[in-house]
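Q: My labmate handed me this sequence with no annotations at all. I'd like to see what the chain might look like in three dimensions before we decide whether it's worth expressing. Could you predict it?
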Amino acid sequence: MAAQDGKKPSDRHYRAVRNKPLLMLHILAIPDEAGARVPAFGISFPEGQYTQTVTIVANRVWMNTMQGPSDNGRR
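A: Here is what I predict for the chain of 75 residues:
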């Protein structure tokens, strides 16, 4: 492992041992703008079987709430 070689562990090593997703929130300073700060985020998912297909069932109310009404002509 990287720590044994005298190096810091990489992100890949942290993902291998973590079993939950990680949400990182940051405030970034913009170098060209004096005092300007920008919110940013990062998401890290643990290793897993992400090629597996998952079937999701959602009703029209949920779809309209999450995505807005569709314009495909159905009512």
